[in-house]
Write a structure and sequence with these properties.
Number of helices: 5
Largest sheet: none
Shape: elongated
Distance between the termini: 53 Å
Number of strands: 0
Strand content: under 5%
Helix content: over 70%
Length: about 110
């Protein structure tokens, strides 16, 4: 599972790190992080896809959100027994007296009281 998360997170971190650094022209002397290359890359992608380059970051963001939900769904499916047991314990489990006492006890007193 850790490898799956690593293979999922690495491209996201690299792309969005490059995107925001180049968008704000924080290039640290590297051409790769320059705003000119940023505009060129998105202009090129826009021409290849036949769409406005300004909507490409939004499309990528929606794809990242979809992939995230897909990955979380796969993890939840793999651990469905553990999740079901956790839900069952929360729903049916008795509440301990010390937990009830902590929830109903008076909170901190103000200095003026």
């Amino acid at each position: 599972m850790r490898a799956l998360f690593a293979f999922w997170a690495t491209p996201l971190v690299l792309f969005w790190g490059w995107f925001f650094l180049s968008l704000n022209d924080l290039n640290f002397g590297y051409v790769m992080l320059s705003r000119q290359l940023h505009d060129l890359v998105f202009q090129l992608y826009g021409q290849m896809l036949g769409i406005d380059p300004a909507i490409i970051p939004g499309m990528v963001a929606r794809a990242c959100v979809f992939d995230t939900f897909l990955l979380l769904g796969l993890v939840a499916f793999r651990r469905r027994r553990q999740v079901a047991e956790w839900v069952r314990q929360r729903r049916d489990g008795p509440i301990s007296p010390e937990r009830i006492g902590r929830a109903t006890e008076a909170g901190p007193t103000l200095p003026a009281e």
